[in-house]
Amino acid sequence: MADPIKDPELYEALLAEGNSKSKAAAIANAAARDGSSALGKRGGEADAYEEWTKTELYDRAQELGIEGRSEMSKDDLIEALRD
Question: A biological process (GO) annotation for this entry (predicted)?
């Protein structure tokens, strides 16, 4: 059974913007956990996407549910991941 959505209002707004269910759930739960002002400020230790291999980028895009990833170039994957 999937974990419940911790911020249903944000989850629904993200879905309305066209995000996948898994991406919307991850963002909504992170916002509820850390406070929405903390979004985008966690981590910071990962290599720049330009340093990742295309396979690593593809795997991350798959985790986030980015559609069309199998047809994307490395640069396209980087752009999609940053959006």
Answer: DNA-templated transcription termination
